[in-house]
């Protein structure tokens, strides 16, 4: 029988990608008791950055939301690997941290990170509701527009 969360992802038309290896001295996921911390994920696809540039000049809010959603998909891929392939072990999404590479006058950071937040609720339902930060910054690695990290409660 197919797992419930895998079925939900299929209904949403989402196929989780192969996970990216860390690009520096860190691990992609770390478990502490009943929580798993997922390192920041960027909007990459097929091993390449799908988006590069800043919000407020190169990207609209809607494009930023798509980039944040891709970050969230990459988070789920890392989480699935950390849970030995079983996303049904997720009790809830505890927190998302969103970083937005934006022009100084850009003010819609929370709207951009909604791309990641909305996906968590679509996938996990009420258990996907979470605490969150949405922070603007002057740059991100490789000039990606968004990076998102996460904490999950698991059993």
Q: Provide the CATH superfamily.
A: RutC-like
* Broad structural category: alpha+beta
Number of DSSP strands? Answer: 7
Strand content: 25-35%
Rg, alpha carbons:
15 Å
CATH architecture: 2-Layer Sandwich
What report would you give on this structure?
This protein is α+β, with helices and mostly antiparallel strands. The protein has one domain: 2-Layer Sandwich (60s Ribosomal Protein L30, Chain: A). It contains 3 helices and 7 strands. The strands form 2 sheets. The protein has a 5-stranded mixed sheet with strand order 1-2-7-5-6. It has a two-stranded antiparallel ribbon with strand order 3-4. Strand 3 and strand 4 form a beta hairpin. The relative contact order is 0.24. The mean pLDDT is 96.
């Amino acid at each position: 029988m197919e797992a419930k969360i895998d079925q939900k992802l299929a209904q949403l038309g989402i196929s989780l990608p192969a996970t990216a290896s860390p690009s520096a001295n860190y691990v992609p996921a770390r478990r502490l008791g009943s929580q798993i911390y997922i390192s920041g994920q960027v909007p990459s696809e097929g091993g390449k950055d799908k988006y590069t540039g800043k919000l407020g000049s190169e990207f609209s809010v809607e494009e930023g939301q798509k980039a944040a959603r891709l970050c969230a998909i990459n988070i789920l891929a890392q989480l699935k690997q950390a849970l030995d392939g079983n996303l049904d072990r997720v009790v809830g999404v505890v927190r998302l941290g969103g970083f937005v590479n934006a022009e100084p006058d850009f003010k819609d950071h929370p709207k951009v990170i909604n791309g990641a937040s909305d996906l968590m609720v679509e996938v996990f339902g009420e258990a996907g509701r979470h605490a969150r930060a949405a922070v603007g910054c002057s740059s991100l690695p490789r000039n990606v527009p968004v990076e998102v990290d996460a904490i999950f409660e698991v059993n």
